[in-house]
Every structure is written in structure tokens, then in C-alpha cells.
């Protein structure tokens, strides 16, 4: 180990092992997947390697590292020249000033995707030549443009994916005597200013979405004897002969870095899994998919992991996903997912997750044994493998949406595996995908027995009820969706109620007035499903479920109209609930749905709810109390009755044309419409009876 100069590692477990490494002459350390590395681990590593010149950790966020570890780096590594760290919450002025004081040769600094950086302190690092704050938020660009222009050696600055504006870029380019290049890709504030141009700063280069990037890069290498376009001539000639020189390099380190570059190259927004379709298809058209799949067969786990990640990211694009499947990528990814290396398994499973989005790939994944692989992964990595578990559950959720594949999932033990995740896993991403998978499994009640099977799995319903109380909206939404689907089964419906489902779902409906339409739809839908039972319907009314359903009926979303109206229709069967709907202001809300909703189904069910409410059974409830209270309620009910009747008749009259009426009844809800006419015992309802 005494001659070791460069070291690359992956994961916090490997970093812990490096603590015991005796390599006094080690100059470069590079680490990936460092999310769990702590201050203590990093401090011990740098303390034992004082000759260190380069330290790079990322691109995953180093969430457990703080300014204390950066100060330790400064004190222990006086020869440090390059420091690049990703995703630290913030770096203090003290830590940066320590680097400036103790690391006089520090010329390359990368503080990527930080929440906060001390801009003033960075202005004190006079040795820096290349500085990146890409993806870092909360930057004070006025301070930056004033102080950083004084840095005597600063040549290149990367501010990509930040909110820097044209004023700061202009000042940096015009005032700095040494600045040569500013990279400002994906900076929305800069790109929105169509009047700004970087061309007027002679001898300086701005790389942005609106500039000619290749021409700009060429200018960095071109001399006075060559035209700019000739800089890439040799490279283009090689490219025509050999499609991906880097990825076909005999050096697997180079191949691995190239795969990493491709994986990151196509991503626009990592958090929302957004990619640049043009870039993804360019990789595909240039033969990149075949090359990546060949590299994925390497014995080196690092290369397997990076190529699987690249394939996964590229497969977000439907055209690339098709090419991956046609080139045998599903079988390769399924094989890699079986790896004993967690990072390889995680990236390969991510690839299967993205491919499973396409309907045409679901059957192929099942045929390749992918369903069993995914289920086995849940048991294999049930402890300490949240990334694998989220991807496996997500892929199973997509597959379960297909009727045939849902049976494969159940046969492979998927119900038990997913319920285990819903019950035991504390990671919200896993909870959300497990609940979504159970919801999709339960959605085929007419064609298979999975709905009943999920309900009969020990602890399933209790776990889903508990997940509706999660702090994470996505978890609440998917859990409510699963309970909605499960409530179509009679035994499940009663078991959900016995597990506290009524109270939980009413509480959810009460809390989601400002939530996403998806959560609102599922909360109301689950109550709709439970309220099919008269006992549950009465319980929902007593728990206070009427008021939130009326509020949801006023939503702007068509899907929410349908589920809220359906739930109120079921509740209106019982006179007590009917009276509650009137007292909570539900008549105007239902009248509005009946008259204006874009959804014909919502209009039907709103009319049904109104018809049931005023069929005469509610009157006796209204008379309970003192004589004066009874008279007051009676008068209030009469006004509500007239309003309801008027709009029910208007609704039915919209179908008075015989042909239109027949078409609507056949396509929407003939039995429901018949019930409107049969159940409305209102003396004046001539048109309704017709």
C-alpha cells in the first residue's frame, strides 16, 4: 500500500474500511454514493493521508457531512489542490476561511448542490482558478459579482442550475481581469432575458443554452492558424469509424467515467426524473445503447453499476426504452438486478422500473423472469436497501397495472412482499410505491382474485389505514387509492372499517382541501367505496365526513367531482346523513355539480343524491326538537327542496330528446338514471317521472 497514489471507492461501508488503510503517499481520493459518510469517517481518512492533493465525493449528496469535516480537511491536507463535494447542506465561512488559510495550492473547488455557501468567504480563497457552485441555492449574486471579480486567479466559473441573472453574469464577465469562461447551463433567470448576449465580452466565453456551445468550446482550443470548425475534424473522423471512442476504451476506468457522463448528460431534473429527449435519442442513434449493454456484461461491478444507471436514465424516453428492449436489455438488467452488490442491483432495478412504464414492455419483463427477480429483491434487501426497495416496488406497481402481470406478481409472492414493505419500511419512497403496487393489484376485481388476496394478507389493511396518516402526500394518496380499490370487495369493506378506516379516511378528507386533485379524488373515492355499506355510511356521517365531502364537491377537478358526488349519493340513502348534507350547505354544492360539472357521471350522481335526499324520509328527522326549531327546519328544507327539484328537472330535461336520452342512458348510468325517476317521491316532479 505504500506506493498507492490514487483511490476510488463506492459507498459509506467502503469509506469506513479506508480508515484502516496505510497509504501515506496517497494523493487522490474519489468516492461515489457517499450519502451516509459522516464527519467522523471523513475526518479520520484525511488525518491519515496528509499528502492528499485531490478529494472528490459525489455526485450523490453527502448529506451527513458538515462544515466541521471541511475544516478537518483544511487542517490535515495542506497540499490539497482539488476539493469537490456534492449535496452538503451548507458550508460555513469558518470552513472556507480554513481552506484559504491552510491550503495555499487549492485551485479547483466544487461546492455542488448545496443549500447555502458563504459567498464572502469564497472571495478570500485567492488561489482558486476553477470554481463550481452548480445547483447551489440561496446564492447572493450581488455579493458574488462584487467580490469574486477580485479573485486574482479565477479563470473558470460554473453557475449552472442556479438562479443567477443577467446582471450578475454581465458584471462577472466585464469586471474580472482573469475570468475566461462562465458556464451557466439551465439557468432559467438568465435564459428568460431574451435581450442578453454574452458575445460582447471579447476574449471571454459564456456557455449557456442560448449560445453556440460547440463553437465556444472550440474557441478554447483553436489557434490562429486553424479555423474553429477544424478543431473537431479529427474527432469527427474517428467518430465515423468508431462510434463511442471513450466507451470502447480498453481502460475500464475510462469506460466507467464515460458511462457516468452519459447517465448525467441526459438528466435535466434528477428529482423529477426529467431527461432531455433530444440528448437521449442522440445517444441511441449513435449506437450508444448497444455499447452500454455490452459494457453492462463486464465483470467489474463499478462498470456494471454506471452502465445500468445510464441505461435506466435513457429509458425514461419511450423510443430509447424500445431500443433497449429490442437489444436484449431487459434480460441484461434482470440479471444485474440479482447482483450481490447493492449499488448494481439498485441501478439495474431502476432500469426495470423505467422500462415497466411502457405497456409493450410489461409482458417482456415477466417473460424474462423479471417479476420473480423484483419480488426476491424485496426479501433480499429488506434491511438497508431503501433504494433497491423503492425501485423494486415501483416496478411491481407498474407491472401490477396489467391484468396478466398482476397475476404473475401474486403468484411470485408479491402480495406478501409488498404488504411487508407497507407494514415495516419507514422510508416514504418505499411506502408510496408499495401502496401504489397494492392499489394496482386490487384494481382487477372483475378478472382475478388479487383484490380479496390483498385484503386477506395479515396486516395489509391495517398498514394501509396507518399510511393514510403519513406526513408525505404521495404516501397518503396511494394508500387511500389502495383502500378505495379494496373496498369493492364486501369482506374488505367491512374489514377496513373495523381497522379504523372510517375515522382515518374522514380525517384525511378533512385535511386535504388544499391538497393535489389526486389525493382529493382518492380520499373521496375511498369514502365512496366504504359508504356502500349502510353501517359504514352512518359511521361516516357521525364522524363528520359530510362537510369535507361537500368541500371536495366544490373542487375544480372533474375526477374529484365524481368521487365526492358518488360518496354523497351513498350517504344520502340514510335520512340522518341527508339532513346533515342540507345543514352543511350541500344542496347548493350538489346543484352546482348537477348543473355545471364537465363530468356527466358527476352530474348524474349529484342528481341522484338530491333525489334521495328529498324523497320524504328526511322530513321526520327535521321535525325533531322544539316546535319553533321544527318549523324553522321545515321552512329551510322546503327552500332546499325547491332548489333541488328545479335542477333535477333541468338535468333530466337535457335528455328529453328521445335519441339523446337513449344514448346517454346506455353510455353512462342507465340503472342510476332509472333510480332517479323511481325514488323521487316529489308531488311536483312531473318531468322527472316521465
What can you tell me about this protein's structure?
The chain contains 40 helices and 13 strands. With 690 residues, it is of the alpha/beta class.
Mean pLDDT: 84
Radius of gyration: 32 Å
**Low-confidence spans:** 222-246, 625-632, 667-672, 678-690
Largest sheet: 9 strands, parallel
Shape: globular
Structure class: alpha/beta
Helicity level: 55-70%
- Beta-strand residue percentage: 5-15%
Give the termini distance in whole angstroms: 94 Å
Task: State the strand order across the main sheet.
Answer: 1-2-3-4-6-8-9-10-11
Strand segment tally: 13
Number of helices: 40
Features:
single chain; alpha/beta; 690 residues; disordered C terminus; 13 strands; 40 helices; nine-stranded parallel beta sheet
Describe the secondary-structure layout.
Layout: E1 6-10, H1 11-18, E2 28-32, H2 39-47, E3 54-57, H3 67-76, E4 82-86, E5 90-91, H4 93-102, E6 108-112, E7 116-117, H5 119-122, E8 130-132, H6 141-147, E9 156-158, H7 166-175, E10 181-183, H8 188-191, E11 205-207, H9 213-221, H10 233-241, H11 252-265, E12 267-269, E13 274-275, H12 277-285, H13 288-295, H14 301-314, H15 318-326, H16 329-337, H17 342-355, H18 359-367, H19 370-380, H20 386-400, H21 403-411, H22 414-424, H23 428-441, H24 450-456, H25 460-467, H26 473-486, H27 490-498, H28 501-511, H29 517-530, H30 534-542, H31 546-553, H32 558-571, H33 575-583, H34 586-596, H35 600-613, H36 619-622, H37 627-653, H38 658-667, H39 670-679, H40 686-689
Parallel strand pairs: 1-2, 2-3, 3-4, 4-6, 5-7, 6-8, 8-9, 9-10, 10-11
Antiparallel strand pairs: 12-13
Helix pairs in contact: 2-3, 3-4, 6-7, 11-14, 13-14, 14-17, 16-17, 16-19, 17-20, 19-20, 19-22, 20-23, 22-23, 22-25, 23-26, 25-26, 26-29, 28-29, 28-31, 29-32, 31-32, 31-34, 32-35, 34-35, 34-37, 35-37, 35-39
Protein name: Protein ARABIDILLO 1
ARM repeats: 328-370, 369-414, 413-444, 459-501, 500-545, 544-586
InterPro entries: ARM-like, ARM-type_fold, Armadillo, LRR_dom_sf
